[in-house]
Amino acid sequence: MSTTLFNLQLDHIVHLQHAYEQVLAKYGFDSLVIYSGHASHHFADDHATSFQTYGHFMHWVGLADIQHSWLVIQSGKKPQFYLHAPADFWHQPTQLPDEPWLSVIDVHQCTQALAPPVEGRSVVIGDIASTTPDIQQALNAETASNEVVRALDELRMFKTPYEVACLREANHLAMAGHEAAQAAFIGASGELDIQLAYLAASRQRESSVPYQNIIGLNGHAGVLHYQHYDITPPSQRYSLLVDAGRRFRGYCADITRTHAGPDAPAIFKELVTALHHLKDDIITRIEPDTSFVELHQQMHQALGSVLVAHDIFKGTGEQAVSEGVTRAFCPHGLGHSLGLQVHDVAGLRHPDGSAAPAPSEHPALRLTRILKPGMVVTVEPGLYFIPMLLNPLRDTSLPINWTLVDQLMSCGGIRIEDNVVVTENGYDNLTP
């Protein structure tokens, strides 16, 4: 790992220490305790579900698989890291990397799951309810109020240079997977083989992905969170949608690409290109003090123009937006905050922690913030041919070219997604 990244991480921990000390002072606590969480067993089974460390814990250590462990943060003292590392011949105990950040955190290896010692008035965050009763009884700390958690969520909304570097590398690794997925599609693979090609090229196992990869061929590309992988390749290849990511030191890439297949109508290829241009145009509008809700609305205006330009809608772009046509073709939001979680925290809150819900006409929008330097967001316009959403419009007098829409139904849909940092002067697109 590069010296530069290590130095950025040390600066990141100094930044967190200072910020947490401010939270402790504001709410009158001496210690803040963070529980890492742990995997739960499937119901009536002895096998555990997949797991990722609690985001506020990962914020300090950058490790996504730490379980049954604790961090104790106090003013003017090194963070105390109580690492659960039992002697075990069934599983390999957690092993920490030999990296400089361990010099600024005191590590205590614990062979038993236990509550950490704390001093003074303490507050705890994390899934404490899932710990054993004896740990809950031994833990001398108050459960954090919503205000404390929201203050820490707000801290995560703004990424340090270390976090941006991690997100950039996660994007780099994920794009290798996307290139391999496209190559597998060209080679006439089925969804499962495309998924395996993605995992191999991005160098990760399926249980480590930040979210379940969406690999949708043909009509499956129109299922927004398609969750299966067909084993057999289809006889005709109209389209491939790949929404897939990668973690790096806990930080998530979330990238989507759509590819036209050899059997797709020519207009579908044109629409894929148009969505790339739409995405790029929206990204150029990102700068400090821009409303993400307004960017979302501009996406719909641009999508209306795309529908008109390609003869899918025979009215005006303004009419396509005002009559709800663009919402039927793109029911999701423009994007969301990105970080240690794919849909990162605080996206639907004002800086003071109060609620900032999505507009009623765009209920799926996951980010309503005014953009500020240090925020990282996704930009993911879409254009889908989903019968459930479009069929109600068939009974209206809206000038939709249903002949063309029906030709495109077999393609499912299009989504193009990049990950973007808001900078002091504009934006930095992390997706190569």
TrEMBL record:
<protein>
    <recommendedName>
        <fullName>Xaa-Pro dipeptidase</fullName>
        <ecNumber>3.4.13.9</ecNumber>
    </recommendedName>
</protein>
<keyword id="KW-0479">Metal-binding</keyword>
<keyword id="KW-0482">Metalloprotease</keyword>
<dbReference type="InterPro" id="IPR029149">
    <property type="entry name" value="Creatin/AminoP/Spt16_N"/>
</dbReference>
<feature type="binding site">
    <location>
        <position position="254"/>
    </location>
    <ligand>
        <name>Mn(2+) 2</name>
    </ligand>
</feature>
<dbReference type="InterPro" id="IPR022846">
    <property type="entry name" value="X_Pro_dipept"/>
</dbReference>
<dbReference type="InterPro" id="IPR000994">
    <property type="entry name" value="Pept_M24"/>
</dbReference>
<keyword id="KW-0224">Dipeptidase</keyword>
<feature type="binding site">
    <location>
        <position position="417"/>
    </location>
    <ligand>
        <name>Mn(2+) 2</name>
    </ligand>
</feature>
<dbReference type="InterPro" id="IPR001131">
    <property type="entry name" value="Peptidase_M24B_aminopep-P_CS"/>
</dbReference>
<feature type="binding site">
    <location>
        <position position="243"/>
    </location>
    <ligand>
        <name>Mn(2+) 2</name>
    </ligand>
</feature>
<keyword id="KW-0464">Manganese</keyword>
<keyword id="KW-0378">Hydrolase</keyword>
<feature type="binding site">
    <location>
        <position position="336"/>
    </location>
    <ligand>
        <name>Mn(2+) 1</name>
    </ligand>
</feature>
<comment type="similarity">
    <text>Belongs to the peptidase M24B family. Bacterial-type prolidase subfamily.</text>
</comment>
<dbReference type="InterPro" id="IPR048819">
    <property type="entry name" value="PepQ_N"/>
</dbReference>
<feature type="binding site">
    <location>
        <position position="254"/>
    </location>
    <ligand>
        <name>Mn(2+) 1</name>
    </ligand>
</feature>
<feature type="binding site">
    <location>
        <position position="380"/>
    </location>
    <ligand>
        <name>Mn(2+) 1</name>
    </ligand>
</feature>
<feature type="domain" description="Peptidase M24">
    <location>
        <begin position="166"/>
        <end position="424"/>
    </location>
</feature>
<comment type="function">
    <text>Splits dipeptides with a prolyl residue in the C-terminal position.</text>
</comment>
<dbReference type="Pfam" id="PF00557">
    <property type="entry name" value="Peptidase_M24"/>
</dbReference>
<dbReference type="InterPro" id="IPR052433">
    <property type="entry name" value="X-Pro_dipept-like"/>
</dbReference>
<feature type="binding site">
    <location>
        <position position="417"/>
    </location>
    <ligand>
        <name>Mn(2+) 1</name>
    </ligand>
</feature>
<dbReference type="InterPro" id="IPR036005">
    <property type="entry name" value="Creatinase/aminopeptidase-like"/>
</dbReference>
<feature type="domain" description="Xaa-Pro dipeptidase N-terminal">
    <location>
        <begin position="11"/>
        <end position="113"/>
    </location>
</feature>
<dbReference type="Pfam" id="PF21216">
    <property type="entry name" value="PepQ_N"/>
</dbReference>
<dbReference type="GO" id="GO:0102009">
    <property type="term" value="F:proline dipeptidase activity"/>
</dbReference>
<keyword id="KW-0645">Protease</keyword>
